[in-house]
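Thread title: Can someone regenerate the structure for this chain?

I was given the following input by a collaborator and told the matching structure tokens would be attached. They weren't. Posting the sequence so someone can regenerate them.
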Amino acid sequence: MAENNLFTLKIITPERVFYENQVSMVEMNTTEGEIGVYKRHVPTTVIISPGILTITTPEGIKEAALHSGFAEILQDEVVIMAEIIEWPEEIDLERAEAARDRAEERLHSKTPETDVLRAETALQRALARIEVIK
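Best answer:
Regenerated them for you:
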């Protein structure tokens, strides 16, 4: 992979610098849909939706469960400010499956007090965790 096609990806959470390295592409879910970013992308900012973050490096592909935040995309750098992001080995599969089941149960209940948006977001987060492990 040509080195001139690489750009810096930095992912920061409130607790740590989650990732910082040269990459050739990054893919994520946003409130506007899925987005893939290469070097020299049009500068923009996006709001992140729960899903799988895919990082393509010269060494291969890495995936993480990205739950929320925003990204600043520049032509030679992407900075993701994430509330929560997890590598597959950091995720407890049983907890993720239990969270998925609770969210699905809330969505299927017909009670007026069900917060549908909150339940849908919880379901998306649980599904991202489960998917990134498998």
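The chain has a mean pLDDT of 90.
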